[in-house]
């Protein structure tokens, strides 16, 4: 399917690896020029070079922490006028409800709620003025079904979801859509980090931890970054202009709910 976005320009945050990389690669395959970001310059440059070589699109890189004011300013400055914004950052650490203090919540809110909000606030006016735009926020399955060890994620991402629900309906009339993608367990470094948490708390092997977590997914496996990226590219396509303020769960059926 021709997504109809060839020649558009996208900022994909936190995209040297994992789900962000999947989104960047799928957009590039649709002919979209990219601004890619991550903190580590080496992996970022390597991924950007692969995308340039395989897809032939223009890729600008900005090695910066997207959750800091300075890093965000640097990224936005390099991005300039963009048509597509994909927000993403690392997820909060696991723990117990009784572990977290105010500072832990502030850090999680900064990374997973206030950073995407600041990015949208910076990019939406230009998209609205130009009469076309797509925003996709990478959130989490935890928005639909809380994950006990990820209370910081449950909290911060719920706040972002509320903001998007209200804002998406205020910008849709200008040709701009905002939607959220909710990953369940995907095969990325983040999944390895969470598998390692299971290994440490339960004293089992990595293979056992992975099998245990995969068994909670009706599809019987972890998702892939490629599948995730394809969904992102569709939400950014011309065909998705009537999809507004939605939360699309990509979880292999793990959340056991009718709606
Ligand atoms: P990942 O494989 O660990 O990749 C994270 C990517 O983000 C890397 O490119 C990393 O590069 C970059 N990054 C992290 N923090 C950053 C920051 N502050 N500024 C700029 N770049 C940053 O993680 P993932 O699995 O793709 O997860 C992406 C998001 O989805 C996370 O918020 C995660 O919590 C959420 N999620 C993931 C899953 C899953 O199963 N994978 C499930 C639910 C939700 P640098 O480290 O070099 O910065």
Word description of this protein:
It is built from 8 helices and 7 strands. With 259 residues, the protein is α/β, with parallel strands linked by helices. The longest helix is centred in the middle third of the chain and has 29 residues. Helix 1 links the parallel strand 1 and strand 2. Helix 1 packs across helix 8, helix 4 packs parallel to helix 5 and helix 6 packs across helix 7. 43% of the residues are buried. It has a 7-stranded parallel sheet with strand order 3-2-1-4-5-6-7, with helices on both faces.
Order of helices and strands: EHEHEHEHEHEHHHE
Which residue ranges are poorly predicted, with pLDDT under 50 across at least 5 consecutive positions? none
First CA to last CA: what distance?
A: 28 Å
Mean pLDDT: 97
Instruction: Give the oligomer, counting copies of the same chain as homo and different chains as hetero.
Output: single chain
Bound molecules: NADP nicotinamide-adenine-dinucleotide phosphate
The amount of helix comes to 40-55%
Descriptive tags:
259 residues; seven-stranded parallel beta sheet; 8 helices; 7 strands; 47% helix; 14% strand; globular; binds NADP nicotinamide-adenine-dinucleotide phosphate
């Amino acid at each position: 399917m021709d997504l109809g976005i060839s020649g558009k320009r996208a900022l994909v945050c936190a995209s040297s690896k994992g789900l962000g990389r999947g989104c960047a690669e799928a957009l590039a395959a649709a002919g979209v020029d990219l601004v890619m970001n991550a903190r580590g310059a080496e992996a970022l440059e390597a991924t950007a070079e692969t995308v340039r070589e395989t897809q032939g699109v223009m890729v600008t890189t900005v090695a910066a922490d997207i959750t800091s004011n300075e890093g965000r300013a640097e990224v936005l400055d390099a991005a300039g006028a963009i048509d597509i914004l994909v927000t993403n950052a690392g997820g909060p650490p696991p723990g117990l409800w009784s572990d977290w203090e105010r500072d832990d919540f502030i850090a999680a809110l900064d990374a997973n709620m206030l950073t995407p909000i600041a990015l949208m606030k910076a990019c939406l006016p230009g998209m609205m003025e130009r009469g076309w735009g797509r925003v996709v926020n990478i959130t989490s399955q935890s928005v639909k079904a809380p994950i006990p060890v990820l209370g910081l994620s449950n909290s911060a991402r719920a706040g972002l979801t509320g903001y998007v629900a209200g804002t998406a309906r205020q910008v849709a009339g200008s040709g701009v859509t905002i939607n959220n993608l909710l990953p369940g367990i995907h095969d990325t470094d983040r999944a390895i980090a969470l598998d390692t948490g299971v290994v440490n708390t339960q004293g089992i092997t990595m293979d056992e931890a992975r099998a245990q977590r995969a068994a909670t997914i009706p599809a019987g496996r972890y998702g892939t970054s490629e599948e995730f990226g394809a969904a992102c590219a569709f939400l950014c396509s011309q065909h998705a202009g009537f999809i507004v303020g939605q939360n699309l769960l990509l979880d292999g059926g793990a959340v056991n709910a009718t709606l």
